[in-house]
Fold this sequence. Notes:
By secondary structure, the chain is mainly alpha-helical. The chain is built from 4 helices and no strands. The protein has helices spanning 4-27, 39-47, 62-69, 72-90. 2% of the residues are buried.
Amino acid sequence: xxxxxxxxxxxxxxxxxxxxxxxxxxxxxxxxxxxxxxxxxxxxxxxxxxxxxxxxxxxxxxxxxxxxxxxxxxxxxxxxxxxxxxxxxxxxxxxxxx
Length: 98
């Protein structure tokens, strides 16, 4: 398993590379590809770098985990809709104003 210290170092390295490359990307010509420096892709590759080939597909990638985090606000909105419908009937949940 990859240590958290190593993952943190990779994330810091990716952030540093992005910070250094950002001014150069602004000066690049319009035909250049801008997606070659991706911190998420770097984390994905580092997450499975020390694993044997048969087991690489079993580990969820950081990009997939971040995609799941993007679903959280929508799921919380659905939960809020359900609790709003149930609260007056049961009387167990106080009226919360947002």
